[in-house]
Design a protein that fits this description.
- This protein is α+β, with helices and mostly antiparallel strands and 552 residues long.
- The protein has 16 helices and 20 strands.
- Among the domains are: 164 residues, Dipeptide-binding Protein, domain 1, CATH 3.90.76.10; 215 residues, Dipeptide-binding Protein, Domain 3 (Dipeptide-binding Protein, domain 3, Roll), CATH 3.10.105.10.
- α8 runs antiparallel to α10, α13 packs antiparallel against α14 and α14 runs antiparallel to α15.
- The longest helix has 18 residues.
- It is globular and about 70 Å long.
Length: 552
């Protein structure tokens, strides 16, 4: 396997440029790596009513976000549902930042360390569809949603709100969250566009769950008018949406196009209005060609908040031996992988580099930093020391439902492992099955995947490493690590909490429960007539669509 690093720009490589920025302490998420004009916060013009936004999309397994962690489900329901709080969207929000603003709650307070009180907006209406029929949104709806969130055993995201003891209705427009212990991330967590959508109890009473398209009834900016499996979903502007004037567009067509080449061709020919990859991106391998043929399009680079990883069943041999895990880390040439597959990116630690306020780069990971070095000789030595002088056979799982880059990189990892004696059979898996089994820890062997999307540091670290996490895919049971994770959740002082989170990253790097590879640079793109567009790495496509307008 070649270990050359050939792809650099003239003069100084983009990677050197990025690394220099990190060394200088620059916030990369704010850098104009490839930036549209005007810059952030500049006038996008006067909002214009009308038009249909066309987006390349994907088919969800179903629509119940408490019964799946599938990102495709969250993408689609984001057009329809609201949350108590949300991440701000629009052209004035810098990619990689996630400022919180009120959504269905107009304000909140914390009278003590274990009580949060949310005051709801009055007059917000559910969509005018049976069985809800446009009634007013009230506190009982919040209680229903989070009671279900906390008690639904199939909800892999229950770990997000594990410190919540109960939710109480104070009055029609006030709801109280009572905690078992201090949890400083509660408001941040409620803003995650991931299983936190507010749903109506009447729908559950009538249908039993929220899997069917007819159950997707919310308070959000759009209504789901039609869903054709494997074809498209059609959303219509909600005229009763509480945000005055929004949505500006009349609707959204979510065009389900599994093939990446077809999707790119649709973007080139104007059949979709925004980039065809997830978060409206263009593949780095296609970027120069698209820029050359379509220089009028808008482009924005975003340093990823999702680390690319290899993870494994650390509760099973041979991966329960730290020497084997360290050998796997030494076996992989991260820089060659970036150059060969992703074109641009940075080696990353347990928090992806795009989360610049919290993430430590590999060279700051203490003793764990040395395991990032590409060293096949040391990998073989560690395997022999662990009792595997001739290596071993295992499986390497990968989903085919994200990007072909991921499958290509899994093949590259497979080659690196083979060089040190590990025969890993590649096991491609359909995305729905992958999300419901492999990503929830029901597998044997190794997995090549993105893992640990990070709108903040608590969720990706807790879900990954805490022994009591409902989404502990590697089956990690490390009392020291779990104790640190719980401690940072209780720590109000920001600097003290940051120190704990840095210690967690260093300890995790030393134990190599996950082999962290890189944080890629994604490039979002959109047509110039799409105004007030806020590119970011989020599942909340709906709020982004509601805030933009079309000026064809």
């Amino acid at each position: 396997m070649s270990t050359q690093h050939p792809q650099k720009t003239r003069g100084v490589s983009r990677r050197t440029f990025l690394q220099a920025g990190l060394a200088a302490g620059v916030t990369l998420s704010a850098w104009p790596l490839s930036t549209p004009a005007p810059l952030w916060g500049a006038e996008a013009g006067t909002p214009k009513r009308g038009g249909i936004l066309r987006i390349r999309g994907w088919d969800p397994p179903h629509f119940d976000t408490h019964l799946t962690i599938n990102n495709y489900t969250n993408y689609l329901v984001s057009f329809v549902y609201g949350r108590l709080v949300r991440h701000k969207t629009g052209a004035d929000v810098q990619p990689g930042t996630f400022p919180i603003e009120p959504d269905l709650a107009e304000r909140w307070e914390a009278p003590d360390d274990t009580t949060y009180i949310f005051h709801l907006r009055k007059g917000v209406k559910w969509h005018n569809k049976p069985p809800v029929n446009g009634r007013e949104f009230v506190a009982e709806d919040v209680k229903f949603t989070y009671d279900r969130f906390l008690t639904e055993k199939a909800n892999a995201n229950r770990f997000l709100l594990e410190p919540v003891d109960r939710v109480e209705v104070v009055d029609r427009y006030t709801v109280k969250f009572l905690l078992k212990e201090p949890f400083v991330w509660l408001v941040d967590t409620l803003a995650y566009p991931w299983s936190t959508w507010i749903m109506a109890p009447e729908v559950a009473q009538q249908y039993g769950d929220f899997k069917k398209p007819e159950t997707v009834i919310g308070t959000g900016p759009f209504t789901l008018e039609r869903y054709e499996p494997n074809v498209k979903a059609v959303f219509k502007r909600n005229p009763e949406y509480y945000r005055q004037g929004q949505p500006y567009i009349d609707g959204v067509e979510w065009l389900i196009v599994p093939d990446e080449s077809t999707a790119l061709a649709m973007y080139r020919t104007g059949q979709v209005d925004v980039g065809p990859q997830q978060n409206h991106g263009v593949r780095q391998q296609d970027l120069d060609s698209v820029k050359k043929s379509h220089p009028h399009l808008m482009y924005q680079d975003i340093l990823s908040i999702v680390p690319q990883v290899v993870f494994m069943r650390v509760d099973m041999a041979p991966f329960n031996d730290v020497r084997v895990r360290r050998a796997i880390s030494h076996a992989i040439d991260r820089q060659a992988s970036i150059d060969a597959i992703y074109v641009r990116g940075l080696p990353t630690g347990p928090l992806a580099r795009g989360l610049v306020e919290w993430a430590l780069p590999p060279d700051q990971l203490g003793e764990g930093a040395k395991y990032y070095k590409y060293d096949p000789k040391e990998a073989k030595r560690l395997l022999a020391e662990a009792g595997y002088p001739k290596g071993f056979k295992t499986q390497l799982w990968v989903t085919t439902g994200l990007t072909r880059d991921l499958v290509d990189d899994a093949q590259l990892v497979q080659g690196y492992l083979k060089e040190v004696g590990i025969e890993a059979e590649l096991k491609p898996q359909e995305h729905g099955a992958y999300m419901s089994t492999t990503m929830q820890g029901r597998f044997e062997g190794l997995v090549r995947s993105p893992f640990g999307i990070a709108w903040g540091p608590d969720a990706p670290l807790y879900r990954t490493f805490a022994a009591d996490s409902t989404w502990n895919a590697s089956h990690i049971d490390d009392p020291k690590l779990t104790a640190m994770l719980k401690e940072q959740r209780r720590t109000k002082d920001l600097e003290a909490r940051k120190k704990i989170i840095h210690d967690i990253q260093r300890y995790a790097a030393e134990q190599v429960y996950f082999v962290y590879l890189n944080a890629v640079i994604a490039t979002s793109s959109w047509a110039p007539y799409v105004k007030n567009f806020g590119p970011n790495i989020t599942f909340d496509y709906g709020s982004r669509a509601a805030a933009l307008w079309l000026d064809r």
